Amino acid sequence: MKRLTGKMTILVCFFCMLFLFLITGCGKEKEEKNQYHYKVYYVNHDRTGVISEDYVTENTDVGSLLEELVTQLGTVPEKLQYHAPLAGSFELLSMQLKDGQLILDFNTAYREQEMITEILNRASIVRTLSQVKDVQYVSFLVEGEPFVDASGSVVGVMSADTFIDNAGNEINTYEKVKLQLYFADEDGTGLQAVSRTKVYNSNISLERLVMEELIAGPQADDTGLAAGRKDGPVINPATKIVSVAVRDGICYVNLDDSFLNQIYNVTPEVTIYAITNSLIELTGVNKVQISVNGETSVNYRENINLSTVFERNLDMVK
Fold this sequence. Notes:
Elements: H1 2-33, E1 36-43, E2 50-57, H2 62-73, E3 92-98, E4 101-106, H3 115-129, E5 137-142, E6 145-146, E7 174-184, E8 191-201, H4 206-216, E9 241-247, E10 250-255, H5 268-280, E11 287-292, E12 299-300, E13 304-305, E14 309-310
Parallel strand pairs: 4-5, 10-11
Antiparallel strand pairs: 1-2, 3-4, 5-6, 7-8, 9-10, 11-14, 12-13
């Protein structure tokens, strides 16, 4: 009887432990299911690059999550070798999410940052906030006006891939590059090649730079045109770049739907091959795929299907 009682005691203890284990396991699983992981980006101690720290939250509301991440970006981390990108002398005045675009408006002190510090802060902010659901890209304003960087260029919409993936590595200063771009000829049916020298911050990919320059249109200091000839714009200047990436020799260009609204008197082929030829001038690009808000099942001006992967077309160059 005593032996039986002892066995019963062991069995009772075993089942109690099993029950506690199952309860604890379920609780832990439930807790983990309610946790969401993000990376918060900071500027490293030497201000030469950005580095990330893991951040866990249970917040699922987009608005309050953005506020939460902004608070983290403005809080000096325990590891003092990091700099919080929103803990500087400038102030974030407002934040608005509209149609997938997160608009951040800063006071004028934002412009007073040193050039490299500003780039690193901007990279950290964009990389952090663009992880949030519904945030497709981020734009910066200063007192309600589009932010202009140290080179005098308006900084347009940005996404995580605006910045070369060099988290934890050195971000270089500005570099000079000579681009060959293609714009419309005078009657809008052919292309003309021009050369343009640009100083740009090297944490932006050359493919994105080419697209920015094509959208900006011809400039007075372009070279290479025959005497007396003029070149014309090919892309609606309201067009926003959603993303640009290169994989296996194909440059994938994702633009917003303003691209479909052509305001210039040029043929559809001129626009498509101005983009294609200009990008293929870059090392590592052999073909180009264009999409609108991520969709390729779109006809550009009704007669060019964007599901096509385009190749260089020099027959259009006059």
